[in-house]
Write a structure and sequence with these properties.
397 residues, alpha+beta, Cytochrome p450, globular
Amino acid sequence: MTQQCPISGVPFDDHYFSHPYDRYTELREESPIHRVWLPEGVPVWLVTRYDEVYAGLNDKRLVRNRRHANADYKNELLPEAVQEGNLHMEDGDVHTRLRRFMNYAFTPKRIEALRPRMNEVADNLLADIEKAGGGDLMASFAEPLPIALIVDMLGIPRDMGGDFHIWSDMIMCGVLEDAQKAGRALITYTYELMERKRAEPGDDLLSHWVHGKDVDGNGLSNQEIVGMTFFLLLGGYITTFGSFGTAVVGLLQNPELADRLRAHPELMPAAVEEFLRWDGSAQNSIRRFAIEEMEIAGQPIAKGDTVLLSLGSANRDHRRFTDADQLVLDREDNAHLTFGRGPHNCPGKELARIELQVMVAKLLARFPKLKLAVPVEDIAWRPNYTFRAPRTLPVTV
């Protein structure tokens, strides 16, 4: 029997964007899977409990490439040029090949080499915040730091600029036309970068993608390079940006936890894992399509149906986590799903972890009197069901 969503079939409304975990609780208790409609009018199967989400992330019958979608799937948020031939939208051997090129960016040596730059940028940004007596942490800290690191990783020349935060914000805004406009601008910019790297290669990721070959002597196509660059810019920025914001909101609502981290900085790695579980930026996985008739939690899924795996809901499932709604800094057995599982697990997860550890630790150490400048209920959240982040985070220091 079809499980109809108890929230009139449209769970991603204004209440959801501000209070997603209330909505997830309702959905999980009703059923592990629901037939719902996305804001853009696409019907999907939404999976909400931990065990079923975990299984779905590892199920090879659920794939990313949209050629497997049926007629229900009509809308695409992103432009045509990044819907094929990129790491996040391919499966099987194509995905494995592209993943090898992406992994070049995230070797332990390359990640460690970014740490001095990470510390430098963080210290400079926090010094500016201190001079101003506070401000919007999202605009003044959470946004510029990950973008600075991605610019360095890709080897983007200083004279090429790039409105990365504007493009990312438009893609996150929930408005289809704005997202596609920003996507086209980012694609045009990426082609300009590719031409620059063909003429002036360096010891950077984009040069590796433009000039590198795989074990069979084959390089990446232009479209593949665009797709890889596009999603590194977006994924590397949005996940860190949003997860930092939600972590700080949680700490400022629980100042005793912030004080505990200041007194015991050795807890920071475990605390970051808990921030990612408790209110991570990645709320729902990129859509998947069933390549054959199958069942999830006893619910028949037709070939070509769209399936959305709710990472945020799974991470708060009391069936898997004790006191799931509580922020527990030293939680044991914290097998959260924020970075996914299976072949499409986040390739940049270790860099994201280190960034968040550095950002939160430096913020707390520098500002022992850090406080929200507005009531927590006045914080506005971005209207996006895939990624969660505050629009602004005004603080005093």
